[in-house]
């Protein structure tokens, strides 16, 4: 291993990156586009549920409940004249749900021995939206019932007042966990996708044969590419952190030391995986497809980035343990929202390093200076 030759090869790689706009686009522009999409375009929050209300009771109690539905910021409530019109608007997609207040609503409320029924109809073709409709209406209903009990003179001691406290993500904003997860996807693409092309590109252009005719070893070639794209990956990670924390306001409660430690652990795996693919496959198109299937898709689907691992079938939950992105997602969410919880971070870092050592071992076995 000659460090002077490695340094010269690194300079060559940097020069090639500057001459190839696609690499810089993937490392710089792609992260910004992805963060923009997840920051502004993708949200699991529902703040404007379109709700129709059919009130068959014209009494003051029914009108009070309708006002409660109309004043909550999560519901965009419209009163319609009858069930037929509400059904038509629900079927056409104008409403996400409908609340029907029956004609005997006030009568049941005045009789404390009976429970006043209301009907909630949700459009089930979007299960997530339907669940939000039910939960929001239920919340308004319980709050309204409590206020009615207080107005009717029921003592405060007879009421159970539940005061929820949400830790770490007080407003339950989905971008608080979507954006740290998107950083994992970005590092996966920057690391694995770009490096999966570099050696395959040398073979396609015919420059690998020229390199092999020199005293440079394959280990030096691979190390130079690893060092170059490691710097590019760190720059991409720093850019992502800056945008997430300072532009989107995602809180960061950990330390920079912990962030660098976890990021380097995963980035080395991603780079190693890409280089292993590039060494094994001498065609850029095939290498890129293998990189997407073996790194990007598992990171997107099985890391807990969007899909909750706890809700997956058992065989998929077992499979997630073999996806290194899972441990990076867990670490980033912990550092951004909670802090440096080393009982979580250290095992994750250790497991990511085990994956890294394994992929570097495979790369070493495959790394031979020969033309066949």
From TrEMBL:
GO terms for molecular function: ABC-type transporter activity. It is found in: Cell membrane. PROSITE patterns: ABC_TM2 (PS51012). The keyword Transmembrane applies. One of its GO terms (cellular component) is plasma membrane. It is a multi-pass membrane protein. It holds the Pfam family ABC2_membrane_3. Keywords: Cell membrane, Membrane, Transmembrane, Transmembrane helix, Transport. Gene3D superfamilies: abc type-2 transporter like domain. Residues 130-370 form the ABC transmembrane type-2 domain. It comes from the Bacteria. The keyword Membrane applies. The chain crosses the membrane at residues 21-41, 177-200, 221-248, 254-278, 290-316, 336-362. Belongs to the ABC-2 integral membrane protein family. This is Inner membrane transport permease ybhS. It comes from Waddlia chondrophila 2032/99.
